[in-house]
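Hi F.,

I've been meaning to write this up properly since the lab meeting, where we talked about keeping a consistent format for the predictions we share between groups. The idea is simple: the sequence comes first, exactly as it goes in, then the structure tokens exactly as they come out, then a line or two of notes. No screenshots and no reformatting. I'm using this chain as the first example so we have something concrete to point to.
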Amino acid sequence: QVQLVESGGGLVQPGGSLRLSCAASGFTLDAYAISWFRQAPGKEREQVSCISNTDGSTYYEDSVKGRFTISRDNAKNTVYLQMNSLKPEDTAVYYCARGCFIPAVDYWGKGTLVTVSS
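Output, unedited:
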């Protein structure tokens, strides 16, 4: 069955970095675009980034441009989200998903918590 498992979350100080991983199984990763979403307490889930499976093109939400980098390693069935210069407002549960943008997403991971605080 299709599974997406996130890891790499944790507590980090403002200005710090974390790398999230999304391990995929049950399907051929290189056949699908993969997204990262996040949901902060009391807020709606929002798309943070997406990476295409065809040409490697990427999308970033405006607030993370220049700070976050999405990448994929199809041989390892893993998608990464490198997060630098973290801010308290980046605090959220981060989810990976199969597909780009909500209408195209068909599977979700269970999420990993990122807390940015001093």
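Notes:
The radius of gyration is 13 Å.
The CA atoms of residues 89 and 116 lie 8 Å apart.

If this format works for you, I'll send the rest the same way.

G.
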